[in-house]
Amino acid sequence: MNYQGDRTTGFASPAGDNIEGTIDLMSAALDLRQPSRYPVRVEGDALLGRSIRHGDILVVDSAVAPRAGVVVVASVGDELRVCELTQRAGEWWLRSSSPRASPVQVDDDTDVAIWAVATGLVRTDV
């Protein structure tokens, strides 16, 4: 006899109307077949305040437009950084949650380029 949830004795669960479908992580966040999406492994603890740890893998997308509050991959001079993009008083800044790191202003006078926006996170060590 096979169990069928809709054919039971007793009363039907009122939560049955709220059951979600399956979650497809590949199409929702991790589909790396898109040419603008790629994985980036995090080194260091600069974003612990955002719960992003050393060794985590960020899925980033270069086709997503950056906006205030998102985590981005940016080049600052010849160095790649994973930072939070913030806006204060009409000015854009790259900042980490580390008190040791100074924010970097994003403007025409600095050698800063935002490459991609983080769209997902994979943690293999929980």
From TrEMBL:
It holds the Pfam family Peptidase_S24. It comes from the Bacteria. CDD domains: S24_LexA-like. Residues 8-118 form the Peptidase S24/S26A/S26B/S26C domain. This is S24 family peptidase.
